[in-house]
Design goal:
Layout (H helix, E strand, L loop, with lengths): L1 H30 L3 H5 L3 E10 L3 E10 L3 E8 L2 E8 L4 E5 L4 E5 L20 E10 L2 E10 L2 E8 L5 E5 L4 E10 L2 E10 L7 E10 L11
Antiparallel strand pairs: 1-2, 1-13, 2-3, 3-4, 4-5, 5-6, 7-8, 8-9, 9-10, 10-11, 11-12, 12-13
Length: 220
């Protein structure tokens, strides 16, 4: 009897956690524009500057388009350089040793949408890990799991904005939220890595959505 009661308690707690996680995620999607508007998003152009270290600051442009096309350009001096991207077949990244854009053999293309949109259909499970502060703000801590892959999301308890995302090899901090057409997006993104290699702060001054990019935009 005790074993049955213990099993029932575990199942109830699991269902409660999954339901609570879904409610938190659904609220974030609703608050930032709604599921329909996010699914109508087909392309995005981010423009601003990227700050590396203390004194390095460069203009940046990022093109993204469904299902997973991407291209990042950084201006050094007066020259615009492609530093990474994915053309639908191959991933590319700048090799600064030879100063040449090269194909990345083990490149894994990222989804255009964040994983927590339609997470169940993508094979993820979600659970609430409790609450934790991000800076001075209390956040719901929600973990998404698929096989061995885990990502933890921190949603502001007051407005459900996503403030922090913890991946295996990177921590992203989001802030300065503004409305872009019908969607709310962060205009400041900070990236931190365990070895502090490639850390950056990206400050955006312009975001354009659903632009029709030229056909050669993602060609390298």
């Amino acid at each position: 009897m005790r074993k049955l009661l213990l099993l029932a308690t575990i199942l109830i707690n699991a269902l409660f956690s999954a339901q609570t996680a879904k409610q938190i995620i659904d609220k974030n999607i609703e608050i930032t524009g709604g599921l329909t508007q996010w699914k109508l998003l087909n392309s995005i152009l981010l423009q601003g500057k990227v700050i590396l270290g203390v004194n390095e600051e460069y203009p940046i442009k990022i093109f993204q388009q469904r299902p997973n096309l991407t291209k990042t350009l950084v201006t050094v001096g007066k020259k615009e350089n492609v530093v990474e991207g994915y053309d639908g077949k191959n991933g590319y990244a700048m090799n600064y040793v030879v100063n040449k854009l090269q194909i990345q053999k083990d490149y894994v293309a990222e989804s255009f949408d964040t994983d927590f949109i339609d997470y169940e259909n993508k094979g993820f499970t979600a659970q609430v890990l409790g609450k934790e502060k991000v800076g001075e703000k209390d956040c719901f801590k929600v973990e998404l799991t698929k096989n061995v892959n885990k990502t933890v999301y921190y949603f502001d308890v007051q407005n459900y904005f996503l403030l922090k995302e913890v991946k295996k090899d990177e921590v992203l901090i989001y802030s300065d939220f503004k409305k872009v057409n019908n969607l709310i997006m962060p205009f400041r993104i900070e990236s931190n890595t365990p070895k502090k290699e490639g850390d950056y702060v990206m400050i955006l001054n312009r975001i354009e959505i659903n632009k029709a990019f030229p056909e050669n935009t993602f060609k390298f």
